[in-house]
Write a structure and sequence with these properties.
globular, about 450 residues, about 20% strand, nine-stranded mixed β-sheet, three-stranded antiparallel β-sheet, 15 helices, alpha/beta, TIM Barrel, single chain
């Protein structure tokens, strides 16, 4: 449950831990994340030792306040370092923090960097969820993206993961890549679905300055995908996923029922998470903390403050905006109870005019008519009319800002809550008692297509 300010207030509530491993075999052509290619084992070992030191220091501050219910190893490519180092890091976490028995622990893996020995070692260490950076099954697209693996390596790695015993696997897939046809994208997605992974993340390629693909587009060698093509690819993906019983529960994430990524749900629901490692970000008790990005400085850090480059205590305005734009990323949308739990305010009382405007434009839907009478108490508590047939999943589990793959921690906007406490109060503009606590709103497909514009309404 969220409490005001998006914090569990150190009440022994659930904590997500993000661990950044900034190493990879080589930088991909589209990657602008904090990572380094071609580093040697000695550097990996030195980093792991520094990470273990940070774990002990941060545990002295936070371990007594929480139970860890999700861990996410991201990067970089965590699977490119020795599995023994990752096992030591997991051991350090377990020795320093209290873990929930059902803790979900994810590792991002490039299919070209895993073998049976590594995969078995991950499971022994308690890593029980594998996120595979597939991106594409097309040789041309993989080469353009600068990936080190091919289609066959992906299929072999997936087979090894299943044989090792992984029962929760995600595929990262990418569309709107220069030169990628809509047919190629559909074939890639359908092949991925045929393998029946539990979870699929599907992302439109973002062409970032400072990357090889950006330079090639700027030079005229490559043409970015047209926006209309991008949107057709996205909606085609939604149709294919729904047809195959994968339910979209967030703008770019779908799963078989019961396999939502618990760690990522924390970001979208303003739950507490602790970032460890170079450049990692945290959200703890209403405070966003940015980690240092200088590797040399990180390796010699020896006290809590050494790891921080920025700290921001969320204001009331921050909480109000973040609750809206993060909650609306979820297919289930945002309820009045969740909004009040995160902000202490009524949803319709705060944003009634914006909600009515967006609904009139076909960008947002609600489980009841908006306008006079909206929020008239709790009578709608069990009456949502949100159509489940359009591939929406209501996240049942608990839930770093920025995401590549399942999650990517390098921004301060990563961001659950369902069981907020209903409160009665005076409505606004005839909205009635309850301030919309029983109300639930979500984005339409049209709203998703221009979600950034929609979110500006709540800033």
């Amino acid at each position: 449950m969220l409490t005001k300010g998006g914090s569990t207030q150190g009440s022994g509530g659930g904590l997500g831990i993000y661990v950044h491993i900034p190493f990879c075999v080589k930088k991909c052509a589209y990657c602008d994340f904090l990572s380094f290619g071609g580093r040697k084992h000695g550097e990996h070992s030195a980093y792991a030792a520094a990470l273990l030191r940070e774990i002990r220091i941060k545990a002295d501050v936070y371990a007594g306040r929480y139970t860890v219910d999700s861990v996410f190893f991201g990067g970089g490519t965590p699977s490119c370092i020795d599995a023994g180092l990752l096992a030591r890091i997991m051991e350090g976490l377990k020795a320093s923090f209290r873990f929930a028995p059902s803790c979900e622990a994810t590792i991002e893996a490039n299919p070209g960097t895993v073998d049976a020995r590594k995969l078995e070692a991950y499971l022994r260490a308690g890593i029980n969820r594998l996120s595979m950076g597939v991106q594409s099954t097309s040789a041309r697209t993989l080469a353009l993206l600068g990936r080190i693996h091919g289609r066959q390596a992906f299929l072999e790695a997936y087979g090894l993961a299943r044989a090792a015993g992984f029962k929760n696997i995600n595929f990262d897939l990418m569309f709107a890549v220069p030169g990628q046809s809509e047919g190629e994208w559909a074939e890639c997605l359908e092949e991925a679905i045929s393998l029946r992974p539990e979870h699929i993340s599907f992302y439109s390629l973002q062409i970032e300055e400072g990357t090889e693909i950006y330079d090639r587009c700027h030079a005229g060698e490559l043409a970015p995908a047209d926006e209309a093509v991008d949107r057709r690819m996205y909606h085609r993906a939604l149709a294919i996923l729904e047809k195959n019983a994968y339910f979209r529960y967030e703008i770019s994430n779908a799963c078989r029922k019961g396999f939502e990524c618990r760690h990522n749900l924390k970001y979208w629901s303003m739950q507490d998470y602790l970032g460890l490692g170079l450049g990692a970000h945290s959200f703890l008790e209403g405070v966003r903390i940015g980690g240092i990005e200088d590797l040399a400085a990180y390796l010699v850090a020896a006290q809590e403050g050494d790891y921080e480059c920025e700290r921001h205590a969320n204001t009331e305005s921050d909480n109000i905006s973040e609750a809206m734009f993060l909650g609306l990323r979820r297919a289930a949308g945002l309820s009045g109870e969740e909004f009040r739990a995160a902000t202490g305010k009524g949803l319709y009382e705060t944003f009634g005019a914006q909600l009515e405007k967006l609904a009139a434009a076909g960008l947002l839907e609600a489980d009841r008519p908006l306008g006079a009478g909206t929020g008239s108490g709790d009578d709608a508590g069990g009456g949502s009319t949100q159509p489940q047939g359009r591939g929406d999943a209501r996240p049942q589990g608990s839930t770093q800002p920025q995401g590549r793959g399942d999650a990517r921690p390098q921004g301060s906007t990563q961001p659950q809550g369902r069981d907020g406490c209903a409160a009665k109060g005076a409505g606004r503009d005839g909205a009635g008692a309850g301030d919309g606590d029983g109300l639930r709103v979500w984005l339409t497909p049209k709203g998703i297509d221009i979600s950034n514009t929609v979110f500006l309404e709540f800033m």
